[in-house]
Design brief:
The chain is an alpha+beta fold and 516 residues long. The chain folds into 4 domains: 25-145, Orthogonal Prism (Agglutinin, subunit A), CATH 2.90.10.10; 151-285, Bulb-type lectin domain (Agglutinin, subunit A), CATH 2.90.10.10; 299-342 and 356-367, no CATH class; 373-515, no CATH class. It has helices at residues 2-26, 288-291, 410-423, 437-448, 460-464, 466-479, 490-498, 510-515; strands spanning 29-30, 34-36, 44-45, 51-58, 61-68, 76-79, 91-94, 100-103, 109-112, 122-125, 131-134, 140-143, 151-152, 158-159, 163-167, 175-182, 188-193, 200-206, 215-218, 224-227, 233-238, 247-253, 259-265, 279-284, 306-309, 315-318, 323-325, 335-337, 371-377, 382-388.
Length: 516
């Protein structure tokens, strides 16, 4: 008996050591495993239980996500379908043939993991907050850490080309107007985007490390910094230390455009007097209202609004007198006018309708409202070029696709389109309004006479694509009809430009010409 007892005493410690391994093995997601979107549905948790992978209910839909699972605030750190929430009954599945995909109730694929190669054996939710898909040799074929949304976690590296996109609002997980990126040239920066496109617009914070930046590190001590290729530290994003053994941590680009580091005590004993809640450890930029000085676009607060830093060190967006929020539930979405626009050209009879309101210590930097942009795609690069929304600036090249923003009314868009087509090489920035007949008269005569090429005789690229020129001219003529009811909506204009809606032959714009 003594011999048996001695053997048990020797074996028992090794058995206990195997328990965590068994638990982690059981947490693996095997082929054929799936989760269904439903309230209080099941999830795949990490061995420690600190993170979970599954569905979170957002409003009336469901978001496939990863979140902190051991705190009351089940804070989301990664998501797959922010712009396309799914309905109850949808599911995510690791298929028998090694695909990992999200499908709706009708079987339509909403999202799938972009695998570097086939041969997925299983998946796993790790204690780091990383969800991985691996093959039989445990080689990682896909991981959520390589596809961040708006958050970076401790021990997650952020490499050259890495991007975080702020979500649109606190409860809308689709991509918003701000981006955090480590550019291929080594510069780490915060910028606005050409919303709803994902291209950088204007930077409002930067490390100025062109040629030297290589990787962003978030270590276990809570420090976040940019390193060079040799590992030396170039710039501290946050040097406030908070051990990951005592605090849950995350770095997030929030919907207001500010990059913030948050910590949450893992226990009352480790809180150091802090509340058992998320608290801000550091943030960049220190004042986004003053940092945002872009030439075009919606700025920190959206169009027709202005930004004020509150006592809680968060930006607050206000509407000027005579304006109100476009969306009362999202003050950062801009403001709309609550009055009928007047015409300054009407003369003295409307002079009494105008006035000025003092707004001390308020400034709208620079001047441009927005710009129309085009996407040029080559074999290896994508670049943006465009024009300013104010008349007089012209496109440097002939454009092959032109997304339309709702920031320009249809009438102005028609005039702008005509200017681009026929006057882009010699249009005078200070041209007077009457130069616009002449323009419309030229267009009408040449369009009706079928000789548009006479107007672009020095533009070989446009001549080679005369059908596109003809289509753009027809769209422009529709846009400048005197009767507003005959003008297409901006949505219809966009569809006509894209070719999804046929462009009918427009009526003669002579009424417009005579009115000008």
């Amino acid at each position: 008996m003594a011999t048996v007892s001695s053997c048990l005493c020797l074996i028992l410690p090794f058995v206990l050591l195997l328990v965590p391994t068994i638990a982690q093995t059981h947490s693996n997601v095997t082929s054929g495993s799936f989760l269904t979107a439903k309230k209080d549905g099941s999830s795949w948790t990490s061995p420690s239980g600190e993170f979970a992978f599954g569905f979170q209910k957002i409003g009336t839909g469901f978001l496939l996500a990863i979140w902190f699972d051991r705190i009351p605030e089940e804070t989301i750190v990664w998501s797959a379908n922010g712009k396309n929430l799914v309905e109850e009954g949808s599911r995510v599945e690791l298929t028998r043939d090694g695909e990992f995909r999200l499908t709706d109730t009708k079987g339509k694929e909403i999202w799938s993991a972009d695998l570097i190669e086939t041969g997925v054996s299983h998946g796993a939710m790790l204690d780091s907050g990383n969800f991985v898909l691996v093959n039989q040799e445990s080689v990682t074929l896909w991981e959520s850490f390589d596809q961040p949304t708006d958050t970076i976690l401790p021990m997650q590296t952020f490499n050259l080309g890495g991007k975080l996109f702020a979500r649109f609002s606190e409860t809308n997980y689709s991509r918003g107007r701000f981006m955090f990126t480590l550019q291929q040239d080594g510069n780490l920066l915060l910028s606005t985007t050409q919303f709803p496109l994902d291209f950088a617009n204007s930077k409002y914070w930067s490390t100025d490390t062109v040629g030297s930046g290589f990787r962003v590190m978030f270590n276990q001590s809570g420090s976040i910094y940019l390193t060079a290729r040799n590992g030396s530290i170039l710039h501290f994003i946050s040097s406030n230390r908070a051990s990951t053994s005592d605090f849950y941590q995350r770095l997030i680009l929030e919907f207001d455009g500010v990059l913030r580091q948050y910590i949450y005590p893992k226990s009352a004993g480790s809180s150091g007097g802090r509340l058992m809640a998320w608290s801000t450890l550091s943030f960049q930029p220190l004042d986004i209202c003053l940092s945002m000085r872009q030439e075009t676009g919606s700025g920190a607060c959206g169009f027709n609004s202005y930004c004020v830093m509150g006592a809680n060190e968060r930006p607050s967006c206000k509407c000027p007198r005579g304006y109100s929020y476009l969306d009362p539930d999202n003050e950062m979405n801009g403001c709309k006018q609550d009055f009928v626009s007047q015409d300054c050209d009407a003369g003295q009879q409307e002079a009494s309708l105008y006035g000025f309101t003092d707004m001390p210590n308020t400034d709208w930097p620079l001047s441009d409202y927005d710009h129309l942009a085009k996407l040029l795609k080559t074999d290896q690069t994508r670049t943006m070029t465009g024009i300013r929304g104010t008349r007089g600036y012209v496109a440097p090249e002939w454009f092959k696709s032109m997304p339309v923003t709702a920031k320009v009314d249809v009438y102005s868009f028609g005039i702008l389109l005509l200017e681009l087509i026929f006057c882009r090489k010699n249009f005078d920035q200070n041209a007077k309004e009457d130069n616009l007949m002449v323009l419309a008269d030229w267009v009408s005569d040449n369009y009706r006479g079928g000789v548009l090429e006479l107007m672009i005789e020095n533009d070989e690229e446009a001549i080679q694509d005369i059908k596109r020129v003809d289509k753009f001219v027809m769209i422009a003529i529709w846009c400048i009809q005197e009767d507003p009811s005959m003008r297409p909506t901006m949505k219809k204009v966009s569809q006509m430009l894209e070719g999804t809606v046929e462009v009918p032959s427009p009526p003669d714009p002579s009424s417009f010409i005579s009115s000008v």
